[in-house]
Structures are given as structure tokens and as C-alpha cells.
Design brief:
By secondary structure, the protein is an alpha+beta fold. Among the domains are: 102 residues, Helix Hairpins (Orthogonal Bundle), CATH 1.10.287.110; 72 residues, HSP40/DNAj peptide-binding domain (Sandwich); 35 residues, no CATH class. The protein is 26% helix and 26% strand. The strands form six sheets. A four-stranded mixed β-sheet has the order 10-11-15-14. Strands 1-9-8 form a three-stranded mixed β-sheet. A two-stranded antiparallel ribbon has the order 2-7. A hairpin with a 2-residue loop joins strand 12 and strand 13. Helix 2 packs antiparallel against helix 3. The relative contact order is 0.10. About 8% of the residues have low confidence.
């Protein structure tokens, strides 16, 4: 299900309005919630996908970017491939509907996991410019969290939790502003109503131990700065053995000469002014080898020449970008006597054509004189 597009995940049309999307999201989230499907890995994956889809399609800006560019366009905009570690506006009300029978005395106290860490985790991997373009294999060295056996991930001695002292086990604290009183989730227990009375000595109250691990992963060609690669079943481990995912965040080093923008690669090359006057054909270094560039006489400074399909292969398989060469005209910093004589002869050979400003200025001079008559 995670490979489907966001509209297919929520089973709505691309033209669906916010109300329809929200309704579909609530229905799917209730269907696949882990607490309704204990031990069901597929349901857990579907639940993550449903929340990921809703985060994007419920936000006008993210939805517009997704509709135009797909998931890759969302990188750096806070959308796409984020797991389900918080930030879902409607989960609270869904929990109430699903678990209303467990709320004593009509309280809307949230049930939450007893361990203090998220199952999904991430690690940053740095790539050279060429590694991102052509793909590579990298060894990933990282640490994942595993629930402390002594306290079963609670951080409490013997795994025994007591009522939270901040909210007295209510899961909420109240704030008074003027004549109004507002309830909010207890910041100490995050709404569970439980807390560690005595910290576990084995984990110092953290609830987990960190385990070093390493493995090799294939980085596909075309990845770019900020892209995320999900590696299933390599994340943190819950007390019941459920394991999250590892997200590899890509960071690409800049190159001294080539500049990348999306799937296009740019290269600026210096061209001497005589090459511009006469025209020239030169060999330029492309990302995949030598390319022949023909520069017509009289080409303008900063003119760009495009080699179609010589850029970066799209990471999603949608063709290749272009390789774009931009010229930068250079002039001599100084001239010797012989060079000056040659240039003067060349200028004289053009006659009045070598001084185009004179014809333009004559008309301007006459205009200015007329202002003072």
C-alpha cells in the first residue's frame, strides 16, 4: 500500500475536497490502527501510509506540490515519507471513538505507549556529487534503541508506573485565563496519566539501551539533497518486539565545477573574446564524458547551450535532465604593442561600423540642444 499514490491510499478521487479527504482518512486510520490490529505488520504499514497521505492532501500547499511534482517535490517542504511520529491533527478524536469504552467517568484521557521513544529513526548519509548522480553502495553505521528488559521500556523500576504527579493521573492539566479554563495534555506524561515513581537503575530512567549496528545499502542514481530512503525493519524496537523503520537522509556535497538544479546539471566555461568574434568548436567535459560544443560567432555573454538528456536520471524513473553549458566571455587583462597595433588595424578596417555609438549619439545631442532653445 505504501507504494500507491496518496489518492489511492485514501481511496479518493484527485478532485476530492478537504471534507471528503478527512472523512476517508478517519475511516482508513480506524481500520488500520495498530491497537485494532495487534501484531499485524501489514496493518501497521498501512496505518503509516494513511497518515503520510493525509498530512500531504490535507495541506493546500503540500497537495499542490504533490499534484505537480509527486513525492520528490515534497522533500524539504515537511511532507512525504515522514513515518507516523506525531503531528496528526485528527488522531485524538479517532482515539476517542475507538477506545471510548476505556475512558473512565467520561474522561478523554489518551491511551499511549508506555515506552518513551519513537519506533522510526533516521541517520544522515553524505554523498559526493558524482555518487548522488550515478548511485553507489554505502555502509550505514548507526545506533537503534531497544527496550530495557528490566523496566520493559517504561523507565520505571521494575516496570511499575504510578499516577503522574503533575496531573494526578488525569492525563490533562488545566490552565486558567481570565474567567476561562482550558484543558491541555499533561506535558510530563504526554497524556497517559502514568509516570515512573522510581527510575530504573539499569537504563537510568531512559527506558532503552542503544545498540550499534551496520549494514550496506544501495543508493539509487538521481538522489538529491534532502531525499529520504526508507529501510524497513531497521528502526527502534518496542518492548513487544515490534520494530520501526530507518530513514536515510541524503546530504550531497557540492562540486567545484558542476552545479545541479533538480535533474539538470550546469557548467560555466570561459571563452576568449576572439572565439566569440570568430566562432569556435570546442570539447567540453560532460557528466558522462566529452561533448562537442559549437559556439556561433557573436554569441552573447551568459548564453546557454543545452545537451538534452545528458543530466541526472530522475530518481523515480521519469527520464533524464539536461546538461547546460553557459559561456562567460573573457577579455585580455593587458595588451602589448603588437597586439594594440593589430586591434587598431582591425578596428579601422570596420570603418564607421566600429563606432556604432557615434550615429546614436548624434541624434541625442540634437535632442538635448533643442531643450535649451
Amino acid at each position: 500500500m505504501t507504494e500507491l499514490c496518496y489518492y489511492e491510499i485514501l481511496q479518493v478521487e484527485r478532485s476530492a475536497d478537504k471534507s471528503t479527504i478527512k472523512k476517508a482518512y478517519r475511516k482508513m486510520a480506524m481500520k488500520y490502527h495498530p491497537d485494532k490490529n495487534p501484531g499485524d505488520k501489514k496493518a501497521e504499514e498501512n496505518f503509516k501510509a494513511v497518515n503520510e497521505a493525509y498530512q500531504v492532501l490535507s495541506d493546500d500547499e503540500k497537495r499542490a506540490i504533490y499534484d505537480r511534482y509527486g513525492k520528490e517535490g515534497l522533500e524539504g517542504h515537511g511532507g512525504g515519507s515522514r513515518g507516523f511520529s506525531g503531528g496528526f491533527d485528527d488522531l485524538g478524536s479517532i482515539f476517542e471513538e475507538m477506545f471510548s469504552s476505556s475512558f473512565s467517568g467520561g474522561r478523554s484521557r489518551r491511551e499511549r505507549k508506555t515506552y518513551s521513544y519513537d519506533l522510526d529513526t533516521q541517520v544522515e548519509v553524505r554523498l559526493d556529487f558524482n555518487e548522488a548522480i550515478f548511485g553507489t553502495k554505502k555502509e550505514i553505521n548507526y545506533k537503534y534503541k531497544k527496550a530495557c528488559k528490566s523496566c520493559k521500556g517504561t523507565g520505571a523500576k521494575g516496570g511499575k508506573l504510578t499516577d503522574c504527579p503533575t496531573c494526578n493521573g488525569q492525563g490533562q492539566v488545566h490552565m486558567r485565563q481570565g474567567f476561562m479554563t482550558f484543558a491541555q495534555t499533561c506535558p510530563h506524561c504526554q497524556g497517559s496519566g502514568k509516570a515512573a515513581g522510581t527510575k530504573c537503575k539499569d537504563c537510568s530512567g531512559k527506558g532503552y539501551e542503544e545498540v550499534k549496528d551496520s549494514f550496506k545499502v544501495d543508493i539509487p542514481e538521481g538522489v538529491d539533497n534532502g531525499n529520504r530512503i526508507r529501510v524497513g525493519g531497521r528502526g527502534n524496537i518496542a518492548p513487544n518486539g515490534t520494530r520501526g523503520d530507518l530513514y536515510i537522509v541524503i546530504r550531497v556535497e557540492e562540486d567545484k565545477h558542476f552545479v545541479r538544479h533538480e535533474n539538470n546539471i550546469y557548467l560555466e566555461i570561459p571563452i576568449f573574446f576572439t572565439q566569440i568574434a570568430l566562432g569556435d568548436t570546442i570539447t567540453v567535459p560532460g557528466p558522462r564524458g566529452e561533448l562537442e560544443l559549437k559556439i556561433p560567432p557573436g554569441s552573447a555573454d551568459k548564453k546557454q547551450f543545452t545537451f538534452r538528456g545528458e543530466g541526472v536520471k530522475d530518481v523515480n524513473g521519469y527520464g533524464k535532465g539536461d546538461f547546460i553549458v553557459q559561456i562567460k566571455i573573457q577579455y585580455p587583462k593587458s595588451l602589448n604593442t603588437e597586439q594594440k597595433d593589430l586591434l587598431e588595424k582591425l578596428q579601422h578596417s570596420f570603418g564607421i561600423e566600429s563606432k556604432p555609438h557615434e550615429d546614436m549619439f548624434s541624434g541625442i545631442f540634437d535632442t538635448v540642444k533643442s531643450w535649451f532653445k
